Amino acid sequence: MGKLIVIKSNSEIECMARAGNALAQVVDDLKGSLKCGVTTLEIDKIVEDAIIKRKAKPAFKGYRGFPASTCTSFNEQIVHGIPSNRKIKDNDILSIDIGLILDEWMADTAFTIGFGPISEDIQRLIEMTQKSLHKGIEQARPGNHLSDIGFAIQSFVEPFGFSVVRDFVGHGIGRSLHEDPEVANFGLPKTGPVLEEGMTFAIEPMVNLGTYQTKVLEDKWTVVTADGKPSAHFEHTVAITKDGPKILTDLNG
């Protein structure tokens, strides 16, 4: 983990907060359009238009060759699903991951939503994954260790019988979408770098109903669970301040 973690000044965090607020508004705009019969390509268009309307740019489009502004991942898809003509239908869950760039600063967020009747197990998976994100965020404060974030997430979800993805993790964020360090959603407490005021992370638990093991589909992007069981994904961009964690991608943040 001995890599450089970029410390942001208060004014730089304010710039990131503006990007985060713009992204939270994009998500708020989108949520009213999420219903059965809508395609993920249509979702991607709504997102891209909402980003551009706020004088920002999509962070994902073209990043390492990714073809869209939004990652849309159905059911057993964990992350990096490519928008298509596939329509949302009853019993689906959909994870939506969005990033934008505003005045050269990045913001990144994700959420999972269910449609129509979904099983109690899957509803609990979504709810506990969202709660685990906030358990992790609570640990993002000066004097804690980086691993305390992942330990909080893992130790929260595993008693419910869920598993935490190991192959894909959160990350530092700032002027680049992916900065050091990697922010794992698992591990032992009190290891790794000590957290300092001015660090900024994208914390993003990916939690599976079954095994934590993954595979990548032939499109070279879409990551799925190895056993085909559903997965949920939530993410916020967070700054560490002297008063504790500040969520930059929350409308009320």
Brief characterization of the structure:
By secondary structure, the chain is α+β, with helices and mostly antiparallel strands. Helix content is 26%, strand content 26%.
Describe the overall structure.
- Strands 8-7-9-14-15 form a five-stranded antiparallel sheet.
- The longest helix has 22 residues, at 10-31.
- The protein has one domain (10-247): Creatine Amidinohydrolase (Alpha-Beta Complex).
- The chain contains four helices and 15 strands.
- By secondary structure, it is an alpha+beta fold.
- Helices cover 26% and strands 26% of the residues.
- A hairpin with a 2-residue loop joins β4 (93-102) and β5.
- The protein is globular.
| Strand elements, count | 15
SS-based class: alpha+beta
CATH topology: Creatine Amidinohydrolase
End-to-end separation in angstroms reads 29 Å
How many structural domains are formed by the residues?
Answer: 1
Give the CATH superfamily.
Creatinase/methionine aminopeptidase superfamily
Order of helical and strand elements: HHEEEEEHHEEEEEEEEEE
CATH architecture, please?
Alpha-Beta Complex
| Rg from alpha-carbon coordinates | 17 Å
Mean pLDDT: 97
Q: How would you sum up the global shape? A: globular
CATH C-level class: Alpha Beta
Question: For the largest beta sheet, what order do the strands appear in spatially?
Answer: 8-7-9-14-15
* Helix share bin: 25-40%
Percentage of β-strand residues? 25-35%
Largest sheet: 5 strands, antiparallel
Can you tell me the residue ranges where pLDDT is under 50 for at least 5 consecutive residues? none
Number of helices: 4
